[in-house]
Specification:
Elements: E1 2-6, H1 9-26, E2 31-34, H2 38-52, E3 61-64, E4 66-68, H3 78-87, E5 96-97, H4 107-120, E6 125-129, E7 150-153, H5 156-166, E8 176-179, H6 182-187, E9 190-195, H7 201-209, E10 227-232
Parallel strand pairs: 1-10, 2-3, 2-6, 3-5, 6-9, 9-10
Antiparallel strand pairs: 4-8, 7-8
Helix pairs in contact: 1-2
Bound molecules: 2-phosphoglycolic acid.
2-phosphoglycolic acid (PGA) binds near residues 39, 129 and 130.
């Protein structure tokens, strides 16, 4: 595990962006997998700017970690987030974009379709945010470390976080998510987890200093050979060293 300590959200976004940009500069046909939400928002703005300033992504494959289950026009979908924050803002598109279909009629088939994409394109970098309960993707506490791409039931804290982020009423909030399991997350060559703010401090402490446990999903990343954890001062505030 490599820990990068940064001052605040702005510096965290810069570090995240740097990892993606350097990866593309080194290997034009990189396969990059994004996450959405509050954590990567700042990074996405920087990344889009970088592309519009000439970063060549014409051979790059881009995909995502997860997707809500819900209508295609739901304001919270990962597809919309990626479009609003990256794909809709850039002048040149990547070679391929892969996303899960939130409204797929047959969930099992959708899982198989996306699994085949993951098999075809081994990922160079997987970006992750950290849930306040230690989750990664929608692998909530208690999810077995053997999980593979699946539809997860979100825990209350996750549903509330989504409601806050998208200003949703309880009845509009998605309660299920397609998510890569531990298997697919660990299969990426490099896994980058980022955490900012006091709300994440407990989860950061448990991830780094606690036991590797299914009750703290992110703790499992310590078993990955190339795991980078970017933490800002507030998120690091409960660490003992
Ligand atoms: P956030 O969420 O990036 O919106 O804080 C992270 C997560 O809950 O996975």
């Amino acid at each position: 595990m490599k820990i990068i300590k940064v001052k605040d959200y702005v510096e965290m976004s810069e570090e995240l962006n740097k990892i993606f940009v350097e990866q593309i500069k080194e290997k034009k046909d990189s396969v990059l997998s994004f996450t959405t939400g509050g954590t990567p928002y700042g990074m996405a703005q920087l990344f889009a700017e970088e592309i519009n300033n000439g970063l060549d992504i014409s051979n790059t494959i881009m995909m995502n970690l997860d997707e809500y289950v819900g209508p295609a026009d739901g304001k919270y979908t990962v597809r919309k987030w990626m479009n609003d924050n990256i794909y809709g803002k850039i002048k040149n598109q990547p070679k391929e974009i892969h996303l899960i279909n939130s409204d797929a009629k047959n969930k099992a088939e959708e899982i198989e379709r996306y699994k085949a994409i993951l098999d075809k394109y081994p990922r160079d970098v997987q970006m992750l945010g950290l849930g306040v309960n230690g989750h990664i993707g929608a692998n909530e506490p208690g999810t077995p470390f053997t999980s593979e791409l699946f539809v997860a039931d979100s825990q209350e804290s996750t549903i509330k976080a989504t409601m806050n982020l998208f200003d949703l009423k309880a009845e509009e909030a998605p309660t299920q998510m397609y998510t890569m399991g531990f298997k697919e997350i660990m299969a990426a060559k490099c896994v980058v987890l980022a955490a900012s703010g006091k709300a994440k401090a407990e989860a950061v402490k448990n991830t780094i200093e606690g036991e590797i446990s299914e009750m703290v999903p992110a703790s499992y990343l310590r078993n990955h050979d190339n795991f980078i954890f970017i933490i800002d001062e507030d998120a690091a505030s409960l660490l003992s060293k």
